[in-house]
User: What shape does this take?
Amino acid sequence: MQKNVNSDLFYKGPITRESLSSRTREPIKDRFKGKAAIVTGGTAGIGKSIALELLKEGASVTITGRRKNVGEAVIQEFRDNGYPECIYLSGDMSDEDFCRSIVKETVKAFGRLDYLVNNAFNMLGVGREATTKDLTECYFGGPVNYLRMIQFSAEEMIKTGGGAVVNISSISGHIAQPRFLTYNMMKGAVGMLTKSAAMEYARDHIRINQVSPAHTWTERMLSRFDHELSPEEYEDIRYTGQGYMLNRGGECVEVAAPTLFLLSDDASYITGSEFMADGGFITLGGEGCIEKAYRDERVYGKPISYGTGGWSAILNPDKPVSDYPELFGNMQKEDK
Assistant: This one.
């Protein structure tokens, strides 16, 4: 990883696409040589980064995704960069037959299966208005798809003496977020799935762990820089770092690194565990986040940023103090 990982990016220099997505890591040569892995949702963002890092370390990799043109372009990109041992499969992870075919085609292409990274997950966020259709879509495209992939992959892993699984979850499995009831609920289910599945497959020498990222600057997130940012948009981006001990959101490679560790033999005594790739978000907590914003104002001489919309609106200082719990009212009074 780059040095100075604790650099306060949101207080030093301008925030750009490059400043938010410039980190790299040094691959461990041949760590996964002769091994085969599946990375669901491997055509973009965190999944793509995990797949690429696995390829760099010698693994053969199957990636999945729903957008065929994107998946084929990613595979060509990997091959053009010197990593030919990869295939792409197009389909919907909520389809049981597709899940089975992923495992079947991987073994057909590479002769074995050693690792599974469950990453493709339904992102639908709905609040109190969630319908049965919404819940069904989230359930089967989320935790059920993860369980199916574990079940089908384990059948092949057992044949080679064992393997490892990493479920990509989220801080959303630990906190409540406005208008995100369905996603929070389903990511919460991943935590218990990881623990229960780890126990279920321990006798088969299959380790199952979980990595839970916070805000991560994926290509989708970085698309905000496709146009010139207004002052309000810029401030909203700066706001995203205030809830983190490291004063910034994460990068995809920073989620890939702990994922590869958990797949590797270096994690041979770790199963049923969760690694937080969250820049200290969960540890900081709500009270710490608020106090940190005031502390940073004193340290850096910068006005406290509250963002301009979305979730940041819950701390909008333009709303009357009476709209908030007493804690916020007191802090605003003390600040004056």
